[in-house]
Specification:
The complex is a heterodimer. Chain A is built from two helices and no strands. Chain A has helices at 6-11, 16-66. The termini of chain A are far apart. By secondary structure, chain B is mostly helical. Chain B is globular. The mean pLDDT of chain B is 91. Classes of the chains: A mainly alpha, B mainly alpha. Chain A binds chain B through residues 1-3, 9, 12-16, 18-19, 21-23, 25-26, 29-30, 32-34, 36-38, 40-41, 44-45, 47-49, 51-52, and chain B through 37, 41-46, 51-53, 55-56, 59-60, 63, 98-99, 102, 105-106, 109-110, 113-114, 116-117, 215, 219, 222-223, 225-226, 229-230, 233-234, 238-239, 242-243. Chain B: Required for the export of heme to the periplasm for the biogenesis of c-type cytochromes. Chain B: Pfam families: Cytochrom_C_asm. Chain B: It is found in: Cell inner membrane; Membrane. Chain B: It is a multi-pass membrane protein.
Chain lengths: 67, 245
């Protein structure tokens, strides 16, 4: 440990605000990218479902014509 | 090697490979970042000049290095896309760009927060900071171009060209601290002589570097999977993939 106490660790020799703010903001920025990617996957799922439903509807409608 | 590589021009093959590799890279990301960040924050010694404020280095330097690394990766894919007209390579570009932009934002933010106590200012228009800001604009430009055209291939081509042209900015960022007399300190580890940093600080920094490398790769893989599915949405394998889980 480079610090004598937990209090020292939090204050970081007076630079606590800067150090912790850096780590917090970096985490937020990277988490946003990951979150956006996860949301995009969910919306792809939805789109794929809609596409399949439409294909099925079209297939049903076309069947009598081909007979 | 070409015979081995060729199947990956097929989107489905690339998807399967990325899908298989992603959990490993994600695990490596969590392990190395946890070890590196805890080590850097709590166990590395204080700096004799900068006190504990220097601990921002464990985020700032890896983010800055891979903001450039991601850009070179994107430019290489741009080159491949333009020369061999491989669709999958085109799709890697929008997978990398937002990740690279995020790393650039992290490098700029942590740099500003580090600059305040050390330099007394959040921002100066010096060469290093300005060229890194231009890198962010390049990423935004690539993303904008990719989606700016009705025809997806045209957009991909334009984005590929911009990512290649923007490579000129990378050596400018890297050498900016040598070419110009600036407020930003010189290179600490990315130079050819011995790194000018104590081993007790270098080891956690190297672990954080590995962590950011794996993080970059994992995020790009996640986004590439989406991008492949988005283009292949009408195909049965993609629909089957999206129904899983």
């Amino acid at each position: 440990m480079a610090f004598d106490s937990f209090q020292d660790f939090i204050t970081m020799g007076g630079y606590g605000l800067y150090v912790w703010l850096s780590f917090f903001l970096s985490f937020v920025v990277i988490a946003l990218v990951a979150l956006e990617t996860a949301i995009a996957r969910q919306s792809l799922k939805k789109k794929s479902q809609q596409l399949q439903n439409r294909q099925q509807r079209l297939a049903k409608r076309q069947r009598p014509v081909s007979q | 090697m070409w015979r081995w590589l060729h199947p990956y021009a097929k989107p489905e093959a690339t998807y399967r490979l990325v899908d298989k590799l992603l959990p490993w890279f994600a695990a490596l990301t969590f392990i190395s970042l946890a070890v590196g960040v805890v080590w850097g924050l709590a166990f590395a010694p204080s700096d004799y000049q900068q006190g504990d404020s220097y601990r921002i280095i464990f985020l700032h330097v890896p983010a800055a290095i891979f903001s450039m690394g991601a850009y070179s990766g994107m430019a290489i894919m741009g080159g491949i896309a333009l020369i061999w007209q491989i669709k999958t390579a085109e799709w890697v570009i929008p997978a990398i760009a937002p990740v690279g932009a995020a790393l650039t934002v992290v490098a700029l933010l942590t740099g500003a927060i580090w600059g305040k106590p050390m330099w007394g200012t959040w921002w100066v228009w010096d060469a290093r900071l300005t060229s890194e800001l231009i890198l962010l604009f390049l990423y935004i430009g690539v993303m904008a171009l990719y989606f700016a055209f009705d025809d997806a291939r045209t957009g991909a081509k334009a984005a590929a060209i911009l990512s290649l042209v923007g490579v000129i900015n990378l050596p400018i960022i890297h050498y900016s601290v040598e070419w110009w007399n600036t407020l930003h300190q010189g290179a600490t580890i990315t130079k050819f002589e011995r790194p000018s940093i104590a081993t007790s600080m270098l080891i956690p920094l190297l672990i954080c570097l590995a962590g950011f490398l794996f993080l970059t790769i994992s995020l790009v893989m996640m986004r590439l999977k989406n991008e492949i599915l988005r283009h292949e949405l009408g195909r049965p394998w993609a629909q089957h993939e999206l129904e899983k889980k």
